Amino acid sequence: MRLSHPSAPFQGVPAEDVFFAANDQYVQMGVGFVVLSFQEEAMPERPVQLYLDIKSQPSARNLLLGALLGRCEQMRAAFPGVKGRIYTELPPTQFDMLNFYTQNGFATDDAREEYLIQLPAGPAQPPMGCEFASVPLQSVQEQYAFLQRLNKYRLSPIAHDYLTLQMQQPYFMALGYYRGGHPIAEMMMTGASADTAALVMVYVQRDMRRRGVARSLLSAGSELLRERGVTQALTHVSSGSAAQMGLIRMMGGTRRKIVTVLPNLVFG
Q1: Is 72 helix (H, G, I), strand (E, B) or coil?
Q2: What is the model's pLDDT at position 3?
Q3: Is 213 left (phi over 0), alpha (psi -120 to 50) or beta?
Q4: Average pLDDT of the chain, as a whole number
Q5: Domains along the chain?
Q6: Helices 213-226 and 242-250, interaxial angle, to 10°?
Q7: Which of 49, 66, 132, 262 has the most beta carbons within 10 angstroms of its beta carbon?
Q8: pTM value surpassing 0.70
Q9: Are 220 and 120 in contact (CB under 8 A)?
Q10: What pLDDT digit, counting tens, does each position of 175-210 carry?
Q11: Contact 254/116 with Cβ under 8 angstroms?
């Protein structure tokens, strides 16, 4: 079995972060790559995030994983003393690959899960000195600026095409709290059915957390949705995020399904 790098970037990933595996007859058996991101807002406890992807015949998986873990060691050396994790993302039904990662020491204690939450009732109390307002989205520049703020707090970014599609839905809302014109918390909800909306994203700036700001913003949005007959919402959360799970528990969320599993190795 042989390893090689592509001669050019592969699916936008730099060539040095991509490995091809081929057998002795030079027949390609698989490909793997690693993507580094520094998620200081989305994962403040472990900001160095190294995402692996392996698409391979079983005979080449261990070779590719070893090469990728070696490349991860080189990449994490740029952040001495900083905590992080090496992870991948798989459907819960992909038992073969889940077993492969667990047999190689990856934990399966994190997953992307879907929860049904009851929209909170009662008046919302904006933080002191803050205004409640719709997010300005009239221009393309404003839309991209909103996405940039949201994506700072996400591992998987929201694309502009997705935003423009959702803006056409009858229950789309983008709301926030602002102080001096600067956002301290924003959220995006959408949906085409009055039965259930979708909470796509809510974030709170780090220095304003643990003050009930997220719940207050959700209450403000919920009041508007209740006027249109919507009383519950679906949302996706990371089971490994204490902040996200704490908000879900506070809102009496009920787990509907596991969307994906995130096998991971932590370091630091």
Answers
A1: helix
A2: 96
A3: alpha
A4: 93
A5: 2-87 (3.40.630), 120-230 (3.40.630.30)
A6: 50
A7: 262
A8: yes
A9: no
A10: 999 999 899 999 999 998 877 899 999 999 988 888
A11: yes
